[in-house]
Amino acid sequence: MKIFLLRILTIGLLLSLWACDKNKPDQNPYLENIGFSREINLDLPEYSSLKFANNSIIVHNVGIKGVIVFNTGNSFLAWEASDPNHYPSDCSTMTPNQFTCECSCEGNKYSLYDGQKISGDGNYSLKPYHIYQNGNILTISN
After folding, report:
1. What is the mean pLDDT of the chain?
2. Which among 30, 53, 46, 60 has a CA at the least distance from the CA of 113?
3. What is the pTM of this model?
């Protein structure tokens, strides 16, 4: 009976270790995790363009280099504004252009719909942030 229980525990431990390792996302070495929470009011003039589909803006002084907020038409998405494929620098803040954003350092281009790289160098996608809508208030957090 002891051997049977020991085997069951060993198998359970191995399965849990295998599952944890398989589901562990790759940590981006360039962008650190910074805790924050920021509310933006869509009724304010600087955010009013977000009321329309396929529009995006950068919210400064939050995240690493700011946060790009994008209206998909059905929901809002929030992405770190620093290019995920190199360390933050003077040129790493990306510029949104409708449904894409681009880094001026080497021209890496990303989709604001899914965060995937469209062109350029590197292996990482855009760093996503949580976004929650309550009426005309968006709360962005990490």
Report:
1. 87
2. 53
3. 0.81
